[in-house]
């Protein structure tokens, strides 16, 4: 299993070759003026409901990106089918050049292995623009669940039914939960939702007892005392959550998962426009204000260039295909 640290180490080796030699990211400003792009507002499609990790980041960057491009950037939530409805809309935008996708790139890489009837090919119909942030998953339970660690949760799952809320069947949190269950012998019932915000809300409300979800969208409920944190999916502990043990420390060696928020574009978008977008997005997400805001919610700014983002997608697609195969998860799109 490729870990976050290992991948970043591999990706850094590409930086010298891709920053951004032939893609035009250092082209003079006059070249952009000549292109007269963008000529209208940019639509930034988030393929999940409002309130999730992708939506939070989209709304953080939309205003400064619009100011940099000289046109408004409009966030358009298009949830459904584990993000595939919104992703398909962007993939099929062709040479529109004014439609982008902000999503969990790792989750998008899972779709070809899970869905048998996708209307688009993520690998062929989309291209990477920039990776923006990484947020580990939090394993949490409703405060009424009488456990304080993963071992106790696994034991309880054999004594009573536990509903495990997931953003969707075949989503990254779902497969992370499957991996934990396979390693520990846990026996919980997966309950799919249409996005992380709804999964969090139902766990807070007690309809579901267990949740594994991105830290960015989940931590506020932990801090408010509405969810109980048992473990973090990062390889190392995090001071932000009081040194709560990792999943790897609690019986699943080397385990690491999370959400990787990034921007993709239709495959037909010219490389020069992709390069300009990548440069602006990376500059914006690295600003002290946004970096501090994300860090306070448990998200780490991790940027990648277009080639690095594409390489990450391919790596994640292979990684999760093995988990999907062992779990036997297959769905119609």
Low-confidence parts: 1-34
Q: Tell me the span between the first and last alpha carbons.
A: 27 Å
**Outline type:** globular
**CATH fourth-tier homologous superfamily of the largest domain:** Bordetella uptake gene, domain 1
Rounded mean pLDDT is: 87
Order of helices and strands: HHEHEHEHHEHEHEHEHEEHHEH
State the total count of DSSP E strands: 10
Q: What would you say the CATH architecture of the largest domain is?
A: 3-Layer(aba) Sandwich
Q: Any idea how many domains? A: 2
Strand count, sense and barrel status of the largest sheet are: 10 strands, mixed
What is the SS-derived class? Answer: alpha/beta
Radius of gyration: 19 Å
Give the CATH level 1 class of the largest domain: Alpha Beta
The CATH topology of the largest domain is what? D-Maltodextrin-Binding Protein, domain 2
What features would you describe in this structure?
- The two termini are 27 Å apart.
- Strands 1, 2, 3, 4, 5, 6, 7, 8, 9 and 10 form a 10-stranded mixed sheet that branches.
- The protein is globular and about 65 Å long.
- It is built from 13 helices and 10 strands.
- It folds into 2 domains: 203 residues, 3-Layer(aba) Sandwich (D-Maltodextrin-Binding Protein, domain 2); 115 residues, Periplasmic binding protein-like II (D-Maltodextrin-Binding Protein, domain 2).
- It is of the alpha/beta class and 333 residues long.
- Helix 1 runs antiparallel to helix 13, helix 3 crosses helix 11 and helix 5 packs across helix 13.
- The N terminus is likely disordered.
- Strand 1, helix 3 and strand 2 form a beta-alpha-beta unit.
């Amino acid at each position: 299993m490729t870990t976050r640290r290992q991948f970043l180490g591999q990706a850094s080796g590409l930086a010298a070759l891709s920053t951004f030699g032939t893609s035009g990211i250092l082209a003079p400003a006059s070249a952009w003026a000549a292109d007269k792009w963008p000529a209208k507002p940019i639509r930034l499609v988030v393929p999940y409901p409002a309130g999730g990790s992708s939506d939070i980041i989209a709304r953080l960057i939309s205003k400064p990106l619009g100011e940099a491009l000289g046109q408004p950037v409009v966030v358009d939530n298009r949830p459904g089918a584990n993000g595939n409805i919104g992703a398909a809309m962007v993939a099929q935008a062709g040479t529109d050049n004014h439609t982008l996708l902000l999503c969990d790139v790792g989750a998008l890489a899972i779709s070809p292995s899970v869905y048998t009837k996708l209307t688009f090919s993520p690998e062929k119909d989309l291209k990477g623009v920039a990776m923006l942030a990484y947020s580990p998953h939090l394993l949490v339970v409703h405060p009424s669940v009488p456990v304080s660690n993963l071992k106790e949760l696994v034991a309880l799952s054999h004594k009573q039914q536990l509903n495990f809320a997931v953003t969707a069947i075949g989503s990254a949190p779902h497969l992370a939960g499957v991996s934990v269950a396979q390693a520990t012998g846990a026996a919980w019932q997966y309950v799919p939702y249409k996005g992380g915000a709804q999964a969090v809300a139902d766990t807070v409300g007690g309809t579901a007892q267990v949740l594994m979800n991105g830290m960015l969208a989940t931590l506020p409920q932990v801090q408010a005392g509405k969810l109980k944190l048992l473990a973090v999916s990062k390889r190392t502990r995090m001071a932000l959550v009081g040194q709560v043990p990792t999943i790897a420390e609690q019986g699943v060696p080397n385990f690491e998962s999370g959400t990787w928020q990034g921007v993709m574009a239709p495959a037909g978008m010219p490389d020069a426009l992709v390069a300009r977008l990548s440069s602006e997005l990376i500059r914006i997400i690295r600003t002290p204000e946004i970096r501090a805001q994300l860090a306070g919610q448990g998200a780490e700014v991790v940027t990648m260039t277009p080639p690095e983002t594409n390489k990450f997608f391919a790596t994640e697609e292979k990684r999760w295909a093995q988990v999907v195969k062992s779990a036997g998860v297959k769905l119609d799109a």
